[in-house]
Amino acid sequence: MGRYIVRRVLIAIPTLIAISMVIFTILALAPGDPLAEFALNPAIPPEVRQQIRHNLGLDDPVPVRYAKWFTSVLHGDFGYSFTSRSPVSGLIKGRLVTTLIVIGLAYLISVLLAIPIGVISAVKQYSVFDNLATTIAFIGFSLPTFFTGLLFIILFSIELGWLPFIYSTTISTRGLAGVWVHIKQAIMPVAVLALFQTAALTRYVRASMLECIHLDYVRTARAKGLPQGTVIARHAMRNALIPVVTIIALSVPGIFTGAVVTEQIFRVPGIGSLLISSIYASDTPVVMAIAFIFAVLVVLFNLVADVVYGVLDPRIKYS
Amino acid sequence: MSEVTESRATQAAPASRLGELHGLGAKKPRSLWSNAWRQYRRHTLALAGTFVFIFLVLATVVGPALYGKSATSIDIVGAGQAPSLAHPMGTDSLGHDEFARILWGGRVSISVGIVAMLVSITLGTLIGALSGYFGGFLDSALMRLTDLFLALPTLPLLLLVIYLFRDKMTHALGILIGMFLLIVIIIGGLSWMPVARLVRASFLSVKEKEFIEAAHCIGAGTNSIIFRHILPNTLSPVIVAATLGVGSAIITESTLSFLGLGFPPDTPTWGRLLFDAQDYIQIQPYLVLFPGLVIFLAVLSINYIGDGLRDAIDPQHTL
C-alpha cells in the first residue's frame, strides 16, 4: 500500500514539472512585451528600458528563465508582480483562502446532495422521483454557470432584494451578525457552483448505483432476509461509490473553471478573478504562479483519487 | 391420426408456403442502424431535443436573411428598448436589435461548437487508434501524453493562449477567421483526451477478434485494418462522445466570450451578448435572459440527443 502511494507520488512530480514547463513556455514564447507601457513613457529612453529588461532577467533564454523560476518556487518565492511591484505570494495568499472556501463549500454541498439523490433515484428507478431528479440533473448541467449566476442575481438581488450580489471581505460587523453577513453574501456563488456540480454528480451516482443493484450479491443479501435499507446502504452503496469517488476527485479542475466565472460575476476576490485581471494586464509572474497553483491542485486531487480508489477497492492489487 | 394430420398438412402446405414466401420477400431484414433508429425513436426527450436543435440550426442559418434587420447597425436613439413587435427581444445599449444579434451570433457559436468537436474527435481517434493498435512503446508514450494533457489546467491555458496569440492570428488571417481558427484549435486541442481513451480501449478489445485475424491472413495492410476493419466497430461510443462534445464546446466558447477573451466585441456570439448585458442587468434583465435561454436550449437539446444516442447505439451502456 505504501509502495503504491510512493509510486503514484513519484509519477505526479514529473507530471507537475512537465505542466509547469508547458505553461512557462507558452508564456515565454507569446508575443507581447510586459514592458510595453514603458515604451510610451518619454521619460524612459530605450537604453534604460533595455537595462530594465536585462535586470528583470527577460533577456535570458527560456530554459534559463524556467530553471530560475523553478528553483525560486521551491523556496516559496513566486517572484514580483509586474503591475503592482509587490511579491506575488502576498497577492495570492488571502485570495487563495477565499477561493478555497467558496469552492470547498460548494463541493461539500454538492456531494452531500448528489449521493442521496442519486442512490434514491437508482433504487426507485422510473418512479416520479427518478424522472424528476434526472430531468433536474439534465437541466442543471446544461445551464452554463455564468447564466445561472446572472439569473440568481436577477432573482434574488434585484427582484427580491434578499441577498447582496457583491462579495466583500471587509465587513465591519462583528460577532454573529458578521457571520450572517458573510453567509448571506456567499450563498449565491456557492449555490451556483453547487447546482452544476450536483447535477453532474447525480447522474454518475445513479448510473453507478444502477449497475450495482442488479448484481448477484445484492440479490443474495435480499434473499438472506436483510431489510432493504441495509441492503442498499451497507452493501450496494459502498461498491457503487468507488467509481464515484474517483469522479469526484477528477472533477476538481471543472469546479475551478466554474469558480473563475463565478468570481467574475459576483466580484469575489479570489484567485480566479486575479487570474483574469493579470492576464489582461500581461502580468506574467502572477499568471504563471496561479496557473501553477491550479496545476498543483489538479495533480494533487488526481493523486488523492488514485490513492482513495486503491484504498476502497480491494480488487486493486499493489505490486 | 397420422393420416388426418398428414392430409391437413398437405392441404395447408401449398397456400401457406406461398404466403410464407410472399412474407419473406415483402419484408426487408432489419439492419443494425434501423434497430438503433427504432430505439432512438422511443426516447421522447431525445426526439424533442433533435427537433429543437435542428430548429435552432435552421434558425441561425436562414434566420438572419429572413428576419432582415441587421445585427451590427448602431442606432443610439433607439437604444435600450424593451421587447416589442418591432424588436422582439429589445435593443441593447448601442441600439442593436437583440433578436438579430442572437441569430447572427448563433451561427458563430454553433459552428464553433461543431468544428471544435470535429477537431477533438479527429485528434482523439487518431491518437487512440495508433495507441491501441500498435501497443508497446508508442502506446505508453501516447498515454503519458494523454495523462499530461488531462492534468493541464484547462481554463487558465485556454485564457492564456487566446489572450497571447490573439493579435498574431488576427493579423495573419483576418479577424474573424483568425479568431475562429484559434478558438477551435485550442478548444479541440484540450478536449480530445476522453475520446482517445475510449478509442484505445475499444481498439484493444476489437484487435483480438477473429475477423481481424482473418483480415491479417488475407494480407490486408495496416492502414486497411485500422480504418476499414477496426475503426467502424469502435465508433459507437465515439459518436455519443462527439454529440456531447458539441454541447461542451458551445459552453466553453460562451464562457470564453463571457470572460471577454473570445471573439472581438462586434461579433455577437451568445457568450458575448451575456457579457454585454451584465452592465445593464438592473434595467434590462431580459438582455440576460434571452441569450442565456438560447444557450441553455441548445446545450440541453444536445445533451438529450446524446443520451438518446447512447441508449440506442452504445453496446456497453447498461442503463
Topology:
The complex is a heterodimer of chains A (319) and B (319).
Chain A: H1 2-29, H2 36-39, H3 46-55, H4 62-74, H5 88-123, H6 128-142, H7 145-159, H8 175-213, H9 216-223, H10 228-250, H11 252-266, H12 271-280, H13 284-312
Chain B: H1 2-26, H2 32-41, H3 44-67, H4 98-134, H5 136-151, H6 154-173, H7 175-189, H8 193-206, H9 210-217, H10 222-233, H11 235-258, H12 270-277, H13 286-313
Brief synopsis:
With 319 residues, chain A is mainly alpha-helical.
Question: What do you see in this structure?
Answer:
The complex is a heterodimer of chains A (319) and B (319). In chain A, 77% of the residues lie in helices and 0% in strands. Chain A is mostly helical and 319 residues long. Chain A has a domain at 89-268: MetI-like (MetI-like fold, Orthogonal Bundle), CATH 1.10.3720. The model of chain A has no long low-confidence stretch (mean pLDDT 82). With 319 residues, chain B is mainly alpha-helical. Chain B contains 13 helices and no strands. Chain B has helices spanning 2-26, 32-41, 44-67, 98-134, 136-151, 154-173, 175-189, 193-206, 210-217, 222-233, 235-258, 270-277, 286-313. In chain B, helix 4 packs across helix 11 (235-258). Chain B is globular, with a radius of gyration of 27 Å. In chain B, 41% of the residues are buried. The mean pLDDT of chain B is 83. The interface between A and B is large, with 46 and 44 residues.
